[in-house]
Write a structure and sequence with these properties.
Elements: H1 3-14, H2 21-28, H3 33-37, H4 41-44, H5 52-73, H6 86-94, E1 101-106, E2 112-117, H7 130-139, E3 144-150, H8 160-176, E4 179-186, E5 191-193, H9 194-197
Parallel strand pairs: 3-4
Antiparallel strand pairs: 1-2, 1-3, 4-5
Helix pairs in contact: 1-2, 1-5, 5-6
């Protein structure tokens, strides 16, 4: 089924009386199904034709997807490869239409101690405050961090700012005995590792 058909089926559950095909097509203009579903309900409800019930249903679908990914990953005893975390990062930030940062906190054995998604940015940039990142890491008693951010435009090449931020985070982490294990860029369809690409 095409993405607009899937969205149409969802909208039919919330708007049972009426033709929702035009609404589904309009919502997907300049976006993706994941991009629409990852919008907060407070933003979705501003769309003409989307009421509170439909907005909550769409957001619920994205939440269920994130929970399924987390449930699958919770069965791991140890995360031996940071790139195995890509499904969780994609589910939580990779589908967003705005740039966002997220982190997974690890202990010395690679066990996952916690996860955090940081504040939303804009379509072209986001800001990560190192103090917030390491405050969360230290609260989790982590010795390692896997950092990720998304590129809504789909590019898998880091900007100069991405590289500078990675360097700052790595150096600050060393002083706090919290290792930056990797920094990932995730998009709706791909990802790239700073570590594997030699950018760290």
């Amino acid at each position: 089924m095409a993405p607009y058909e899937l969205l149409e089926l969802l909208l039919c559950q919330a708007i049972p009386r009426g033709d929702v095909k035009p609404l589904a097509r309009r919502l997907l203009q300049g976006s993706s199904l994941g991009g629409v579903l990852s919008r907060p309900p407070s933003q979705l409800v501003l769309e003409p034709g989307i009421g509170p019930h439909a907005a909550c249903l769409l957001a619920l679908c994205a939440r269920v997807h994130r929970e399924l990914v987390s449930e699958r990953e919770s069965q791991w005893e140890v995360c031996r490869d940071p790139e195995l975390l890509v499904p969780w990062f994609r589910a939580n930030i990779g589908l967003s239409e705005q740039e966002r940062f997220a982190a997974v906190f690890l202990d010395q054995q690679g066990r996952i101690l916690g996860r955090k998604v940081f504040d939303t940015g804009s379509r072209t940039r986001t800001v990560l405050y190192a103090r917030e990142l390491f405050d969360a890491a230290l609260r989790a008693k982590a010795t390692g961090v896997v950092l990720a951010h998304n590129h809504p435009g789909g590019a898998l090449v880091p900007s100069l700012q991405d590289r500078e931020l990675t360097k700052r985070v790595r150096l600050l982490g060393e002083s706090l005995e919290v290792t930056l294990v990797d920094h990932l860029i995730v998009t709706r369809t791909g990802h790239v590792s700073f570590c594997q690409s030699g950018w760290m």
